[in-house]
Amino acid sequence: MNYLSEQQVDRISNLVREVEKLSDVEKLLLYLQLPCGRTELPEGKYKPNGNKHGADIFSKKPDQETTQTYTWILSHLEEDQNVSLPKQEVYDEYRAFCQANRFEPLCVADFGKAMKHALPCIKPRRLGQRGNSRYCYSGLRKKYRIEPPSLPDMTELKPAVAHNHNHHHHNH
């Protein structure tokens, strides 16, 4: 640690104290949103700015899709011990949201992992008669009032919409 100034060490200590106050879910979201700026990689095999190459040595890069998946889960779903939701229904809604906002949905397995991390109390269960059972998330319900998750890339979509509008105007 001898190459860090005292101010830098203090700054990190303060950050750590702040992070300790966060809930687990907030910590997870923070972790997912950390930039992947790992430039000093071993033996200089990796291009310093080629994040893609650098990220290969880490099992899973916390990327935008993952972050937005967590944001969606936390803004659309909440725990309620008396309710169960069919897994497929939850995933279908998530997928529709992804398509509407033009980003790749996680595959079913990864979405399941994201659910496990974001809402650890929710247990997947099989409900219904044999041969007609459905996989459900037990103890989960949709939020009635949905806070719209802030999506940073919405601004990029606006010019395209305006452009289409003008184009449409031309035809008349």
TrEMBL record:
Record domain RFX-type winged-helix: where: 69-144
Question: What protein name applies here?
Answer: DNA-binding protein RFX5
UniProt keyword annotation of DNA damage present: no
* MF terms in GO: DNA-binding transcription factor activity, RNA polymerase II-specific; RNA polymerase II cis-regulatory region sequence-specific DNA binding
PANTHER family with a match to the protein in the record: RFX TRANSCRIPTION FACTOR FAMILY, RFX-TYPE WINGED-HELIX DOMAIN-CONTAINING PROTEIN
Q: InterPro entries attached here?
A: DNA-bd_RFX, RFX-like, WH-like_DNA-bd_sf, WH_DNA-bd_sf
Q: Which UniProt keywords apply?
A: DNA-binding
